């Protein structure tokens, strides 16, 4: 078995662990497990604390980056969990508006399953509308994340309904899904912001492309169509080769590069300094970071060695100093 095969196996294994609800619940119940993994997570989460997170976003803004933030969590199954997530965003919006160093507010993001879709479509729409209304009052944009393929129809249906009422809402599309080229037309007609990602979830081969040249070609084709639309957009990727091809081809000069906090900061710093496109650092905060950590390691399985080193030799978080 070659190195590529080993990396693919490691990626699939990490994604299965991330999706396992039993392990995710155990993580939330075990303070000891969280303490053990926290040094590795701090490479990727901006903070567990809301106020510290806002200060760190302010530091990134001062360095010339746009910012984005998400309260970590997805697939909430109880009304209490859904209410906690919704209330967190409403509080966060007020704090952003009051923060002295956030003249350009961060873009907010969340999974619809974190605000109610598992319980009911109506609950998710109600909570999402609350957040969007409050965010619009503060001139804050909100982008809905895309989740596992089983939720795609529901997410797009809710987005398309909300887009007519809330111009500050945007949507994430996954290039890996075979349906996305067909979904894109209706999304572009809204004029709302589109964030294009490759897609992080392990999906069946019948409905999605694996990582590789075919996926990169589809990503570029979708991005070219999005660039030809009238709405704002972001190409969200940590792939240096893909970023270089996008910038060289100039198919996204109207958009912005969005990268996750803690992943290849030297790449987004280079793009920001070149000035061809705007650069946005998208961060997550909170304590429910199990899935986020495993997904970041799964994107490049060699990162498991960094994670082991972080756990063995904990260091203080150095957010913004690497950007």
From TrEMBL:
Keywords: Oxidoreductase
Keyword Ligase: no
Gene3D superfamilies named among the record's database cross-references: 3.20.20.220
Protein name (database record): Proline dehydrogenase family protein
Organism lineage: Bacteria, Pseudomonadati, Pseudomonadota, Gammaproteobacteria, Pseudomonadales
Oxidoreductase recorded as keyword: yes
Ranges of residues in domain Proline dehydrogenase: 57-284
Origin species: Pseudomonas paracarnis
């Amino acid at each position: 078995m070659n190195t590529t095969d080993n990396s693919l196996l490691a990626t699939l294994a990490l994604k299965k662990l991330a999706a396992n609800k039993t392990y995710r619940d155990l993580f939330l119940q075990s303070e000891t497990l969280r303490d053990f993994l926290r040094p590795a997570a701090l490479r990727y989460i901006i903070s567990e604390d809301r106020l510290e997170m806002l200060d760190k976003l302010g530091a990134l803004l001062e360095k010339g980056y746009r910012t984005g933030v998400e309260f970590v969590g997805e697939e909430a199954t109880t009304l209490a969990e859904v209410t906690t997530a919704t209330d967190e965003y409403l509080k966060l919006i007020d704090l952003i508006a009051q923060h002295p160093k956030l003249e350009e507010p961060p873009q907010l993001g969340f999974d619809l399953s974190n605000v109610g879709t598992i319980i009911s479509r109506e609950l998710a729409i109600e909570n999402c509308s609350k957040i969007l209304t409050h965010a619009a009052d503060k001139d804050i944009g909100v982008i809905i994340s895309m989740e596992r393929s089983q939720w795609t129809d529901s997410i797009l249906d809710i987005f398309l309904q909300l887009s007519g009422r809330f111009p500050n809402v945007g949507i994430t599309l996954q290039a890996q899904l075979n349906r996305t080229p067909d979904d894109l037309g209706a999304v572009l007609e809204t004029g709302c912001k589109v964030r294009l990602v490759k897609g992080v979830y392990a999906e069946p081969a019948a409905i999605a492309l694996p990582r590789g040249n075919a996926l990169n070609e589809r990503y570029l084709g979708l991005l070219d169509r999005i660039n030809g639309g009238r709405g704002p957009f972001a190409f969200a990727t940590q792939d240096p080769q893909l970023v270089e091809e996008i910038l060289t081809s100039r198919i996204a000069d109207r958009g912005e590069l969005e990268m996750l906090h803690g992943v290849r900061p030297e790449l987004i710093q280079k793009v920001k300094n070149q000035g061809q496109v705007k650069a946005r650092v998208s961060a997550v905060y909170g304590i429910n970071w199990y899935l986020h950590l495993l997904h970041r390691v799964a994107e490049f399985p060699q990162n498991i060695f960094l994670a082991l080193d972080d756990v063995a030799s904990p260091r203080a978080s150095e957010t913004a100093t690497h950007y």
